[in-house]
Write a structure and sequence with these properties.
It is built from 12 helices and 6 strands. It is mainly alpha-helical. A hairpin with a 2-residue loop joins strand 5 and strand 6. The two termini are about 30 Å apart.
């Protein structure tokens, strides 16, 4: 066996920066944020000390041990430190790792506002996050929206003409751009650089996105404001929509108010990795919530089966169980909503399609404009059913993955003896 000082010392990329990461409570173990280009990694205090030691380019094992002891106050053998590096440090940190661009969760994506243009826009919008002004705007939104919402809910299920559908789609997509400008403008308000804004296809759903990766560098409450920035800007957008609805009585404005409200509530749910997920993560200081919830639920079931002794209650555990309960309630609500919509479509869709198809065939012998109008009406009739079917497929796939993952965790925990340690 070669002497310990002959062990090869891995080299890290030199442009890694380390900074403390603010957690939700002082009870959580300290963590640190490693930044490398546009990638960010949360690590423990022990991993931080190891990274700092390796960044000093130790020449041998003894040098590595001394550097780590100086950073952490703890002496560990070089072999243990090297094993720790292989297990806990992200592969992207090592000097021989190829540069990997950040992957977007879209089938197709296109950047529409580059970083420079987006920065020029957000410099003019950041003032909207002044606390006093934000309180006034949110209050005005609540007053107007509460007046509009009852009629908006009533008109939402009325027939949508082709003209209304086209106008609603265009205005709804505009509200999505406003949403992303809210995230980037919040970054600008706190002096944090941001990237561009683009458009992509997430599963089958069109979606906007904004590059606010550097928001990881902000304090916890500032990150929460960035998380809420999109919904806040949409609330400002809705002030104009609600005022138009109340002043004119235009059904299009009421339907748009309902559609944007639905989108805002959907993005605030913490079950999927939308704004609500990151908001809960930042406020609670817990990350990888889905993975932690699966482990907690699996451990709870193992405890109920008598395979483990009950763990001492903790704030972290309470948050995870509350999140699991919220997720289950949301899945139940969303499943019931989709089930009702599918039943409704089962009885009403075919007559509507038959009528619009007959109108489309009849328009074939008329002029081009009549044909175009009939085609638009037919497309408008299909819009909501296609959206419901796509959402149902998305929901069932997410539910299947959750069940499979929880079952795998339960299977692993069932192999543990009662004291909870591997046999």
């Amino acid at each position: 066996m070669p002497p310990s000082n002959a062990l090869p010392i891995p080299q890290l990329k030199p442009d890694i920066t380390i900074r403390p990461y603010e957690a939700a409570t002082g009870q959580a173990p300290p963590r640190f944020l490693l930044a490398l280009d546009d990638q960010y990694f949360l690590v423990s205090a022990k991993a931080r000390a190891l990274v700092a030691a390796l960044l000093g380019k130790p020449s041998d094992s003894e040098h590595l041990e001394r550097a780590y002891a100086a950073e952490s106050g703890e002496h560990l053998p070089a072999a243990t430190l090297l094993a720790l590096a292989g297990k806990t440090l992200p592969p992207a940190l090592f000097i021989d790792a190829p540069a990997t661009p950040r992957q977007l969760p879209f089938m197709v994506s296109l950047t529409l506002l580059g970083p420079r243009l987006a920065a020029r826009v957000t410099r003019r919008l950041a003032w909207l996050f002044t606390p006093q002004l934000a309180c006034v705007l949110v209050g005005l939104f609540l007053v107007l929206h509460l007046a509009v919402l009852p009629d908006a809910l009533r008109l939402a299920h009325a027939d949508w003409s082709a003209r209304q559908s086209a106008a609603l789609f265009a205005l709804f997509m505009l509200s999505g751009l406003v949403h992303e400008l809210g995230h980037t403008s919040a970054c600008r308000y706190f002096g944090c650089p941001h990237g561009g804004i683009g458009f992509g296809l997430y599963f089958v759903f069109p979606a906007w996105y904004a590059d606010v990766t550097r928001a990881w560098q902000l304090e916890r409450r500032q990150r929460a404001v960035v998380d809420l920035g999109g919904v806040y800007f949409q609330s400002i957008f809705l002030i104009a929509v609600d005022a138009c609805a109340l002043a004119s009585g235009e059904p299009l404005a009421y339907k748009l108010a309902w559609l944007i409200t639905f989108a805002m509530l959907f993005t605030l749910n913490p079950v999927f990795k939308f704004d609500g997920y990151w908001l809960l993560s930042d406020l609670s200081g817990l990350h990888n919530l889905h993975k932690q919830v699966r482990a907690s639920v699996g451990g709870l079931i193992a405890t109920l089966l008598g395979r483990r002794t009950p763990a001492a209650p903790t704030v972290r555990g309470a948050i995870l169980y509350a999140y699991a309960l919220l997720s289950a309630c949301y899945f139940l609500y969303f499943g019931l909503f989709l089930g009702r919509e599918l039943l409704s479509l089962g009885t009403s869709l075919l007559p509507k399609l038959s009528a619009t198809w007959a109108a489309l065939r009849a328009a074939g012998s008329a002029g081009a404009w009549d044909m175009l109008a009939a085609a638009g009406t037919f497309a408008a009739t299909l819009f909501w059913p296609v959206l419901v079917l796509a959402a149902s497929g998305f929901f069932l796939d997410k539910l299947r993955r959750a069940v499979v993952n929880i079952a795998a965790v339960i299977k692993e925990t069932r192999t543990l003896p009662a004291h909870g340690k591997p046999a």
